[in-house]
Amino acid sequence: MDPLQQEMTFEEYLNFPKTLGWKHEYYGGALHRSPAWTAVATFRASPHTLSAIEMNRRADSDPSWETLTVKHLEKEDHTPLLKLFCECFDQAIEYAACRPSDIVKYAHKSLDAFFGDSPEPYADACRVATINRNIVGASIIARCEGGALLQPIFVDLTYQRRGLATLLLTASAKSLVEQGCKELRSRCNLGNEASMAWHAKCGFVEFPEELPAGHRANIYSLEAERQERLGLPTAKEMRALADFWRNERDRLSS
Q: Which H/E stretch holds residue 177?
């Protein structure tokens, strides 16, 4: 069965946990979930601050780790980066409703501009990580209003949670400092808990926006209602979150 579609009664739907990042709908006797386009948070940070992050990479017994290198983007990296992009984001919430062919299109949209005759202005800040000369990660830096945009950063599933993303980020940030860039932005789906935590740990600050605030208010309100019906002890805390984000949404929309 499609994990984004589950047959159930309407009562079961009402009692189904509602989670950040997702749009929840009920029709045709089933729950339908899809990534919520309103659930994207924008972060920003000073490249100078990011460039000063102290690395505490986890000790690793894999001898291939000693071959790790971080280098500039090169033309021959295009094809392997497209492949790695698709592998990394195949199970990501942002692409949960996409067919494999759609993810390939998004990969080209994100990367092709950096390998043309007129590369992106911040192409020199992009970094690629290799182990045993195989590409295992990359930080891609595009231009956006007000500065640069981390779009995206991704690491081979085998090497995640080992500090590679932060290593790539700091290397790109140092280059942005040299180029006089004052702000680096990034985006993340609210349902991607690991990425949200990583942004906060690195020093990114979420930019207040009406849409993600409204998404939080809606999800927390639905969850508060569900937990109140079931008599769960966390219902009061969830209701407080719903009220806070509803007020924040109203403040940002005024």
A: helix 164-178
